[in-house]
Amino acid sequence: MTAILPELLKLRTAFLTKLKAEVLFEKTDKEGKKTNNLADTSSRGSSAIAAKWGESIPGAYGTQAAEQTSGKKFDEAVADFLKRGFTLFSGFRPGDWSWQAEPIYQSDQYQHLAEVMAALKDRPELKTVFGEEYLIKPDIVVRKVPVTPSALGGRSGDVALYSPFVQDAQLAHGKPTLHASISCKLTLRSDRAQNVRTEALNLIRNRKGRTPIFVAVVAEPTPHRMASLALGTGDLDCVYHAGLYELQRAVKEVGSEEQGELLGDMVNGRRLRDLSDLVLDLAI
Predict the structure, then answer these.
(1) What is the pTM of this model?
(2) Dist CA 218 CA 229 (whole Å)
(3) How far apart are CA 52 and CA 99, in angstroms?
């Protein structure tokens, strides 16, 4: 048997190294102390935690020239790590999986929204009534591709005609099932947290079929800002941090007692996990 968890650890180390080199860069805070671009440089606590977290992950910082594309590169790095990690668990979660980022109406549960989109295009005035909540294109999409009837021994009568598991199901039209929708936020501000919650609620309300996994992945160094998204239940399944273990050590070393308690509450309350945990959670 492949040593799955040791291999996942290698992937995690490579991910953090890539993150530091391609997404992060050094900068100074309001007091002239070194930190990185994850920090709110007007906050001493945020700057200190971000700096200590950056020091604890492997590799060297990148250059500030990449600042404008850092969010997109974070999305790409997270997607690459999850895809590689998920492949390790193919024996536990077999099937044909798609990681292509597409609008949700390309998935089985939301294909009816294509008709709504067409109606809004033909009659723009309806947007003032319905808004544009249907235009959801998640940062990372994990979809289960349906199988053909021949893979199941062929059809010999009326059985399982409508399940999206089978490609020729009469109502599903062979579209993949949205297994997981992953929102990536390099850092969190109040408006970004609200955007994630709104996207989650739209996925819940507009589906026809099973609710997909909906999670957020962040690299935010400040526990209070993560709490704006992680605390509470119902909107999203869980929040995952790009380097939670390193963050826990950083907060313990340079953070306040209150920050340490809040971070512990989120972890112990099962609302915050490490990105490596998401690989396994997707395989459940």
Answers:
(1) 0.93
(2) 10
(3) 33
- CA–CA separation, 76 and 69 (whole Å): 11
Q: Is the pLDDT of residue 135 over 70?
A: no
Evaluate whether 188 touches 225 at the Cβ level (below 8 Å).
Answer: yes
Q: Which residues pair with 141 in a beta bridge?
A: 181
Residues 70-148+162-282: name the CATH superfamily.
Type-2 restriction enzyme NgoMIV (3.40.50.10010)
pLDDT of 275:
98
CA distances from 284 to 94, 95, 104, 153, 272 (A): 11, 13, 22, 26, 17
Q: What are phi and psi of 172, to 5 degrees?
A: -90, -25
3-state secondary structure of 102: coil
Enumerate residues 6+ apart whose C-beta is below 8 A from 129.
none
Q: How high does pLDDT run on average in the chain?
A: 90
d(C-alpha 110, C-alpha 235), whole Å: 18
Q: Are strands 238-241 and 213-218 parallel, antiparallel or unpaired?
A: parallel
